[in-house]
Amino acid sequence: MAINLQKGQRISLEKSNGSKLQSVCVGINWGAIEKKGIFGFGSSKEAVDLDASCALFDENKKLIDVVYFGNLKSKDQAVRHSGDDLTGDMGGDDGLDNEVITLDFGSLNPAVKHVAFVLNSFRGQDFGTIPFASIRIYEGTPKRVNEIFATYDIAHDASFRGHVSMVMGIFYVKNDEWKFNAIGEPTKDRKLEETVNTVMRNFL
């Protein structure tokens, strides 16, 4: 049964049968912005280009690798990005993830101790104007969901208004066990590089 994550909540990666997750998909689903017509007549859809990215760090907070729309695989092949979605759901929420990053814990470079997931609005569109945006962690593939492990709603929170970047959450090792911290914090950054630096300074 999925856990609805709250900001700052930390969870162990344990499935409903008590076993540990060996690999996960982190999927992001979002919608296009609806624009009202002149004098309130009619409406149109404005495409939204959100970019999900993943940064890998060692125990000393040194950046090892970054997976994003321009680099779809980590050097160790453990992290893979499904590709860049430039529009979001133009026809309303279809329930499917627009971008998916797959993480295989067993294939990770042993030096990796932190795996951070961040979200940036490529065109600088305010998170507060996007009708829906959510993250979910699940077993399966980008095209098949076996079991949803956790979900986190990032759209219906007033703190995201006025921001175009955020830290979604971080997988981290503690006592040789992978855990997840649902950060859910907006940042003042405008570009991926800036957001990765914010993660290094404030969240590891």
From TrEMBL:
Pfam families: TerD. Residues 1-194 form the TerD domain. InterPro entries: Stress/Tellurium_Resist, TerD. Keywords: Tellurium resistance. The keyword Iron does not apply. This is Tellurium resistance TerZ family protein. It comes from Mucilaginibacter rigui.
